[in-house]
Amino acid sequence: MGKKIVEKIVDAPAKVLERGVSEGQKAAIIVMNAPGQAYAMSKAGGQKIADNMPENAKKSYTKAKNYWYLLGPGLTTGASDDDPSGIATYSQTGAQYGFSLLWLAFFTMPLMAVVQEMCARIGLVTGRGLAGNIKRHFPKSILYTCTLLLFAANTFNIGADIGAMAQAVQLLLPKVGFTILVISFTTVILLLQVFTPYVRYAKYLKWLALVLFAYIISALLAKPDWPEVIKNSFIPHIQFNKAELLLICAILGTTISPYLFFWQTSQEIENEVADGQTSIKKRMGTDKEQVKRMRIDVWSGMILSNVVMFFIITACAGTLFAHGITNITTASQAAEALKPLAGNATYYLFALGIIGMGMLAIPVLAGSSSYAITESLGKQQGLNHKLSQAHTFYGVIIISMIVGLGMNFIGIKPIKALIYSAVVNGIVAPVILIAIMLLASDKKIMGEWKNKKSATIIGWGTTGIMVVAGLAAIYSIFPQ
User: Fold this and answer.
1) Is 454 or 425 the better-scoring residue by pLDDT?
2) Could you tell me if residue 47 is inside a domain?
3) What is the pTM of this model?
């Protein structure tokens, strides 16, 4: 009875939207088609340029193009990790502690990559998403609890990201109202998720990942002390005070985050569905070539994510910390503080990066919640389905977006939302990681693709670190 009530509540927003878009959908489709048409035109233009290249340059271009086509879920998952909330966390790290925590970028990269590779492998081998696998092999109470906590954490994050995007626009266009901006961003992102065909939508997310290079360029323009940067990149330094522990926990929580686990697995499934493997039976099993492509994709995405973390910390350490500006609570505040110190170019790149990464990360946050909930309930799910085919799936996305939007009007400050999100992630991440480790190491489930010894060691090590980080975050936040 309770399950049916929950399903009706979740389905309702999607059904209401479906009824209201019979005519509006035509206009929406035209708007959504425009980027695709622009992409097709640019692709044709790019091919003409390639045809006129010298032979050596043509070979390099072909290699680069083939590599780009290999990238997919891993790239977008890694890029989404550097959302506006993550940007704020990394900016605060650089502003408050200078270069001293740069080593975390290199430390977390292999941990993040190994876990995400396990998630992708689970999806490829079983043909199911992460929630579906947990549902089959663990008590449902664990799945339902984790799923609800994931929804809460993601929604807090969505609210903070929407607000950050609006503030970033106001840095560039001060006269535009905050209310108009948050409503506009919510509407556009929602329309893209609901009405854009998955194949095209995945391409948009992939291209948005390139926005991250804005932060690499901004760090180079900031002209930091490179000998200090190199030294702190490889020598761990921790003061063990409460504030620093909390920030380290926040970095671990935003880097190795539950929503990435669910999104990665589900996107591997989406790609297979797009290729015509529409049933679990057809999707089950994988081969060396597919696993090789997946690993290139996943590791590329995770390396990009952590490289960008490194450069955001570097940019803020080399400018803000160096000038005594140590209290940064939002990504837009970081961009504004950088302007007089690093110049207009860095300021604009930082602000545009916040907007672009919000457009990429918010759909991932909302989508991962939806995959987890709908798979837990055994309902039709996936961006490959139309609105009329997956009411529950799109209903969860709509609710996530509306609640996240509402947070910007009820007095919950972005930094508080991120703290709540960090605490919830600190509770959820270790539980989900244990489930991932048990699934990926089980020969009955994974066959020849079960974890190798190195992955097992790194995976359990990561789980242990996240348990400690979660407990430390809770300890650091609550007064003693």
Assistant:
1) 454
2) no
3) 0.84
